Amino acid sequence: MNTIADISVNTASGQAKSLSDYAGQVLLIVNVASYCGYTSQYKGLEQLYQQYRDRGLRILAFPSNDFGAQEPGTIEEIQAFCDRNYSVTFEIFDKVRAKGSQKHPLYARLTEAIAPASEVSWNFEKFLVSKTGEVVGRYRSSVTPTSTELIEAIEGELVK
Fold it and tell me: Span 26-30, mean pLDDT?
């Protein structure tokens, strides 16, 4: 099984956090940006989080400046933007590289987990991770957080 449990990420405050801390929870991992045509998806992500957090869904947002330089700010600026514009309550982590030779180990694992393996193509690409840490779904930027396709997949994982 190709899990993400052994990977460590940095929180917005710079503290290392093991993804094994999320064992038993369903994760939706998203690379985000503040100045993108898809930025309004923050609203749908927050709706998803509010609807399913008590059932075990966690949304993990990873700002990345890899796509069109649409996330140039500091982590503090990004958090302020998300709070001011979308009242985001899910976790926003430190900025990462989501593609290329220097991509974060998390994104290296995510992009290899579902065939066909390929780089993240743009901001707001989503990866669904099971309670056991296995990557079970990949959704392109055009799939909105409140789409039937994504909601059915999340609900399917939550009941397992």
Answer: 99
